Amino acid sequence: MISVTDLKKSFERSEVLSSVTVNVNKGSIYGLLGSNGAGKTTLLKIIAGIYKQDSGQVSYEKENVFENVSLKERIIFIPDFPYFFPQYTIKQMADFYQSTYPNWNNTRFHTLHQLLGLDLKKKVQQLSKGMQRQVAFWLALSAMPDYLILDEPFDGLDAVIRKKVKNLIIQDVADRQMTVIVSSHNLREVEDICDHVGILHHGSFILEKDLDDLKSDIHKIQIAFKDTPPKELFKDFTVLHKEKRGSVFLVIVKGDRKKLDPLIQNSQPVVYDLLPLTLEEIFVYEMEGVGYAIENILV
Ligand SMILES: Nc1ncnc2c1ncn2[C@@H]1O[C@H](COP(=O)(O)OP(=O)(O)OP(=O)(O)O)[C@@H](O)[C@H]1O
C-alpha cells in the first residue's frame, strides 16, 4: 500500500498541497483527477520521491521513499513530458534502464518490440510525441515496476496503442499486483481502468471514493406523473440535481437503490426510468451537490 499522510508542500511561500491524505491499495489503479494547477503533478512527484514534502509522510509498505534508492528501483514515474537522454537511441535507453532497474525483463522488452514495431536504432528524441510516449511505456513496462506512477499518460497515443497500453497495465495489475496511480483530465480514460478515484482541488481532496461505490450510490431518474407530483418524494435522499423537461422530471439522487425503487413505484408514476450515469456525469452532479462549479474543475 502507498500511504500519504497529512502532506504539505509550498513553492516560494505559496501553498500547493495542504494536508493531503490518501491510501492506494496494492494491486489497485487509482485515478487522480482535478483542475489545472490543483497540485496533481506536485503530489505525484512527491509520491515518486522526486520532490521532498515540507511536512507529512509518504510510505510504501512503511518505507519512506525520498532518497530511498532500493525502493526507487521498484517505482517508475512517467511524467507528462517523458525525458530521454539527448542523442540516445531506443536501444541505448533500454540498456540504461536495464542497468538501473534490477527487475528488468528482456523477454518482455522483445515482446513489446514486436507489438510496437519501433526501430531500436532510432534516436528517441527524433521520434514523434506519440512514439516517444510509446517508448516511455515500453521501457517502463519492461522494467517490471511494482509501482507505476503516470502523469497524463495517454496524451498523444493513438486509439489502438492506447488500448494496447491499457491492456498491458491491467494485465500487470492482475498478474503481479502492480500498483498504479494515474492522473488524468480524461474521465472516460479513468473510468476504463481505475478502481478508485480522487479529485484534488486547490491542493486538497474534495472527493475520494471507490468507483463501484460511487456508481452504485447515485441514480439518474426520469419520472412523470398524471397529476401533481407527490411532495417530498425524495425527502430521505440527497437530491444533487433536479430539472423539468416538459412534463418529465430529471432527478439525480444519492442513496440506496433498494429503498428508492419501491418508493417511486408506490407514487404511481406514468413514466419511470432509472438510467446509468457515466463517471463524468457522476462528478458533475457530485460537485454540483457540494457547491463546486464543475465546469471549472474538470477540463
Ligand atoms: N517547481 C515549481 N516551482 C514553483 N511553483 C510550482 C512548481 N511546480 C508546480 N508549481 C506550482 O504549483 C501549482 C500546482 O502545479 P501542478 O503542476 O502540481 O498542478 P497540476 O494539478 O498537475 O496542474 P495541470 O493539470 O495543469 O497539469 C501551480 O500553481 C504551479 O505553478
Automatic annotation (TrEMBL):
GO terms for molecular function: ATP binding; ATP hydrolysis activity. SUPFAM superfamilies: P-loop containing nucleoside triphosphate hydrolases. Keywords: ATP-binding, Nucleotide-binding, Transport. It comes from the Bacteria. Residues 2-227 form the ABC transporter domain. Coiled coil: none annotated. Gene3D superfamilies: P-loop containing nucleotide triphosphate hydrolases. Pfam families: ABC_tran (PF00005). This is ABC transporter ATP-binding protein. It comes from Natronobacillus azotifigens. The lineage of its organism: Bacteria, Bacillati, Bacillota, Bacilli, Bacillales.
